[in-house]
Amino acid sequence: MNKIPMVDLVSQHGQIRDEVETAVLKILRKANYIQGEEVLKFEEDLASYMSVSHVISCASGTDALQIALMALPLQPGDEVITTPFSFVAAVEVIALLGLKPVFVDVDADTFNLNVEQIEEKITSRTRVILPVHLFGQCAAMEPLMAIAKKYDLYVVEDVCQAIGAESCWQHGVTHLAGTMGVIGCLSFFPSKVLGCYGDGGALITSDDTLAQKMRQIARHGAQEKYHHKCIGINSRLDTIQAVILSIKLKHLNNYISQRRKVADIYDANLQQLKDLKLPYRSSNSTHTFHQYTIQISASKRNFLQQELQKNGIASAVYYPIPLHLQLAYQYLGYRQGDFPVAEKLSQTVLSLPIYPELSEKQQMYICEILCNC
Questions:
Q1: N- or C-end of the chain: fewer Cβ atoms within 10 A?
Q2: How many domains does the chain have?
Q3: Which domain holds residue 106?
């Protein structure tokens, strides 16, 4: 059995190689590398897929988060409620803008923000709730949005890992991840469910005023070249990345469907392992399985990961240190024990390979190794 990586981008490219290479060659011949017409086309295509009025492309998911917060009427010291169990990007931009990250522990099953703990963290300085839809599954958005409405707070959704996931509300109502808050932030990092061939990101909104402001911010604060109406940054999606994303967007629903099939095979073959907890599938959300993350005792996780590695199988720990215990954020004053669920997860989670091109034969091999450990 050949080595099994966490994601196989070579195989994915092979399925769309001709279309991608033809499109990229066309751009190379025209040399319209920045803000070519293909960028606008991708924004329109994605807006249609997401059923929103506006998509503003940018250089990365991190930039998307920063632009979103810059576009809101926030002041230094204003508080943003978010999760301590995630990638650092959201907390990073909160801090960079002089805002204060306020952490709420996560749900032990979904790994997402524990909505039941949000209200106790709201103060007179709270302005934003920033949920991260982790590993491909939405946070409990219906009660979260009710809290935001009650306290007149903005909701900015980090959808970098959950494009295509649906939040399931009462009475059969569903909403795509990123369309419930005032702004949704997307990443197109290559390993994402919808990934480009470098860095890329986007913001989605149906608020016309915010859309105009975010587009300005992403272009040095200028709506018209050399006329800077606000302080901005330089954050553009390259034309080559845009055309690649437009091609892959047509396959997105199939990518998600294939990831769910992979997850189903894992579930069926690993459920016999009593000391291993499989990913929880919430009734509040569909799951796109950006990651397939199991839980195993802290004492066994390192051994399990080593056995997988010895047999040519990649695995990863997302995330080994919760954000409130990271050195960079010690100034916030949090300590060990403040967020026990996040802290436990950092010691017990392990993500297995998952991607549309993962064969059933490869999966059965992975399951065999796990079952024999």
A1: N
A2: 2
A3: 9-249
Residues 27, 166: one domain? yes
Name residue 187's beta-bridge partners: 201
- CATH number for the domain that contains residue 288: 3.90.1150.10
- Residue that has been written with the tokens 């419930």 in this structure: 180
Q: What is the mean pLDDT of the segment spanning 285-311?
A: 96
Report residue 171 as tokens. Answer: 């009475």
Rounded CA-CA distance 56/79 in Å is 25
Instruction: Encode pLDDT of 146-160 as tens digits.
Output: 999 999 999 999 999
Q: At 259, which amino acid appears?
A: R
Q: Are strands 292-296 and 276-277 parallel, antiparallel or unpaired?
A: antiparallel
Same-domain pairing of 202 and 94: yes
Distance CA 84, CA 91 (A): 8
User: How many Å separate Cα 284 from the centre of its chain?
Assistant: 17
Q: Using CB atoms within 10 A of its CB, is residue 9 exposed (0-12), middle (13-18) or buried (19+)?
A: middle
Q: How far is CA 93 from the centre of its chain?
A: 15
> 1 in a domain, yes or no?
no
- pLDDT value for 36: 93
Mean pLDDT of the chain: 97
Taking the alpha carbons at both ends of the chain, their separation in whole angstroms is 18
Judgement on whether residues 192 and 119 belong to the same structural domain of the protein: yes
Tokens at residue 17, please? 């190689």
DSSP 187: E
Helix, strand, or coil (residue 353): coil
Give the pairing of strands 222-224 and 79-82. Answer: unpaired
The H-or-E segment that residue 266 falls in is: helix 252-270
